[in-house]
Amino acid sequence: FLPRLVASMEGPEETYIMVKPDGVQRGLVGEIISRFEKKGFLLKGLKLFQCPKDLAEEHYKDLKERPFFPKLIEYITSGPVVCMAWEGAGVVASARKLIGATNPLQAEPGTIRGDLAVQTGRNVVHGSDSPENGKREIALWFKEGEICEWVPAQAPWLRE
Ligand code: UDP
Ligand code: MG
């Protein structure tokens, strides 16, 4: 009861989703956006963006000590990414399910990585792993004025 009360007081969750440079280069931007759009989440921010090295390092700071960190930073800054902010109740965990396991060979068919990728180092998409990180990452990747508050026409057909 208490966590639900707190969650309702804080409003719906937000998650940061990003098409990584391989997804952009492979022409998968529309396909990936579509998965979240069709599901019924609310798109609040969207841009094509060349990520600077310091931003990539800040975004992935929890992985700084991992051996793959330098290659990860090189990968994320190797070309433009598509940055997205999505909102909805339960959007963080649901988006992680839609994305699939980190290793695309272990990702279920039907998930983005399961359908569209073969290697962990080229797994086409990022999704925040907690509501706290969703907020943190959206604040990191978007400037003020780049997030839209709006009510889509389909809203009454998504929730009773
Ligand atoms: N990564 C990698 N090698 C690994 C683990 C992760 O290259 O052994 C990369 C991969 O692109 C992954 C990202 O680092 O998506 C972040 O890792 P994390 O464990 O947070 O996976 P995710 O949350 O993206 O599924
Ligand atoms: Mg992660």
Tell me roughly what share of residues is in helical segments. 40-55%
**Low-confidence parts lasting 5 or more residues at pLDDT below 50?**
none
Order of helices and strands: HEHHEHHEHHEHH
Strand content: 15-25%
C-alpha Rg (nearest Å): 16 Å
The mean pLDDT is 95
The end-to-end span amounts to: 21 Å
Heterogens: uridine-5'-diphosphate, magnesium ion
Question: Major sheet, described briefly?
Answer: 4 strands, antiparallel
Total number of helices: 9
Number of strands: 4
Strand order of the largest sheet: 2-3-1-4
Shape: globular
Structure classification: alpha+beta
Describe this protein's structure.
- With 160 residues, this protein is α+β, with helices and mostly antiparallel strands.
- Helices cover 43% and strands 16% of the residues.
- The protein is built from nine helices and four strands, in the order αβααβααβααβαα.
- It has a four-stranded antiparallel β-sheet with strand order 2-3-1-4.
- The radius of gyration is 16 Å and the shape is globular.
- The mean pLDDT is 95.
- It binds uridine-5'-diphosphate and magnesium ion.
- Uridine-5'-diphosphate (UDP) binds at residues 63, 68, 72, 102, 120-121, 123, 126, 129.
